[in-house]
Amino acid sequence: MGTLFVVATPIGNLGDITARALDILKKVDLIACEDTRQTIKLLNHFGIRKPLTSYHEFNEQKKADDLAARLQGDANLALVCDAGTPAISDPGYHLVRACRQRGVPVIAIPGPNAAVAALSVSGLPSNEFMFIGFLPSKKTARRQKLTSIVNVPCTLVFYESPHRIEAALEDMQDVLGDREVCLAREITKIHEEYVVGKLSQVRQQVKALGEFVLAVSGATEFRQPPLTREEVLKVLGMTRNQLYDLVFKKEDAG
What we know:
Elements: E1 4-7, H1 19-27, E2 30-33, H2 36-45, E3 52-54, H3 60-71, E4 77-80, H4 93-102, E5 106-109, H5 114-120, E6 129-134, H6 139-148, E7 155-160, H7 165-176, E8 180-185, E9 193-198, H8 199-205, E10 212-216, H9 229-236, H10 240-253
Parallel strand pairs: 1-4, 1-5, 2-3, 2-4, 6-7
Antiparallel strand pairs: 7-10, 8-9, 8-10
Helix pairs in contact: 3-4, 6-7
């Protein structure tokens, strides 16, 4: 039976790859990667020649069984993502689970991880934290997610993309309050930047370029989440139509 190696790769600076990761990539029979175009750059840089197979968010569930079955033979497989540690807000979970269900050995080859890197330099409590990853892209769903964690006392760690960072920060301040935050941009890359302060301060300095990690301080006091429309109606004991009639018919009468 083969072995699945879950290999962490650099999140920017290629010098961050470990000697053990390079050794594994040289020895395996096949490398499953999120984007073959990105992985080939890494392999070429270190003079590694290995066959690649694409394993990304759009095919991972279907392909997991095929790769796990192959591992039940004598093939060894390395799983990598474009940057960082596979299965952490990146493809990998389905393959690891398929291997575990079949008794295929799975070994972690640890290394770079953007969330842990940002947390380590945030200056926020790191003895306990909650990793959220990417928030929903739609505003309503995003605010609902934030509402569900508004009273979590430990540090919260998020990922965010450049085209949603400003909207996400606005919703965080509205829902969570004006908390302390460390915003890390382009970690280990040429434009690496860290902005610390209250959410209201950081929002004024953010540059919507690159990938972001946000470490946000946990709740220090209970915060009542805002009521949804459905909850408001339940408290008032009326339907939407009844509320509409109450408000607008009263205005018409006035």
